[in-house]
Design a protein that fits this description.
The protein is of the alpha/beta class. Helix content is 45%, strand content 15%. The protein binds phosphoenolpyruvate. Phosphoenolpyruvate (PEP) binds at residues 9, 11, 167, 172-173, 211-214, 232-236.
């Protein structure tokens, strides 16, 4: 049985001071969570503040991006060894907002996965179709293409460290979530792709989160599905009560 995994993507919200407050609330509200794995991904400048608060808790800390090189003259960038040293265990790679605004491609995703894993970080790799792709009946094709490019020539060991977040772009920050049926169908497709590339056991171990307007009101219906192994939560992760309710929904269905 795969352990459900709920991760919060705080995006470009929460100053270090605000992040500390949110982390303190989550630490208190989630003390008794046992069955569900939980992580929060604050902005770079708030990672240390959050890590200090959550150090002795069960909530892990992640980053929202990582640079393609381990070090060098890359002004404004942050590398995998820096994130690891700052206390991160997770890093989100290939979020659609980075693909849209910062030139992230399936190729950079592939390279970042290798780097992150080499430095001891576990990647949450985001894939998903746009609205026009869904409406054009291309979802399956897009997922096939993204899967093969993002995981191109990755070893089974590296793939074993990856969590995939299926995030239909049309559902992110729009309040319009995929139905459990729609999400489940794509999750099954992703697991089948993993099975054909890495074998049945690796595919059974793979955790696939759903992301896109997950809220306390829709979390249980999504998380009840056996191929939906958790959620990557944006907006609702900025509110301690809402995020706690989503984690509780995961605990309740496990
Ligand atoms: C996200 O940022 O990954 C996300 C899914 O955002 P939201 O929950 O706000 O749709």
């Amino acid at each position: 049985m795969r352990r459900k995994f709920i991760a919060g993507n705080w995006k470009m919200f929460k100053t270090p001071q605000e992040a500390r407050q949110l982390a303190k609330s989550l630490k208190i509200k989630l003390t008794d969570v046992r069955r569900t794995e939980v992580a929060v991904c604050p902005p770079f400048v708030s990672i240390s503040a959050v890590q200090e608060i959550l150090r002795d808790s069960r909530i892990a800390v992640g980053a929202q991006n990582v640079h393609l090189e381990r070090s060098g003259a890359y002004t404004g960038e942050v590398s995998a060894p820096m994130l690891k040293d700052a206390g991160c265990s997770w890093v989100i790679i290939g979020h659609s907002e980075r693909r849209q605004y910062s030139g992230e491609t399936d190729d950079t995703v592939n390279r970042k996965i290798r780097l992150a894993v080499a430095d001891g970080l576990s990647p949450i790799v985001c894939i998903g179709e746009t609205l026009s792709e869904r409406e054009g009946g291309q979802t399956e094709q897009v997922i096939n293409r993204q899967f093969s490019a993002c995981f191109n020539e990755l070893s089974e060991d590296v793939f074993g460290r990856v969590v995939i977040a299926y995030e239909p772009v049309w559902a992110i920050g729009t309040g319009r979530n995929a139905t459990p049926e729609q999400a489940d169908a794509v999750h099954r497709q992703i697991r089948a792709l993993a099975a054909s590339r890495y074998g049945r056991e690796a595919a059974e171990r793979l955790r696939i989160q759903y992301g896109g307007s997950v809220k306390p009101e829709n979390a249980a219906d999504l998380l009840r599905r056996s191929d939906i192994d958790g959620a990557l939560v944006g907006g609702a992760s900025l509110d301690a009560d809402a995020f706690t309710a989503i984690v509780r929904a995961a605990e309740d269905v496990t």
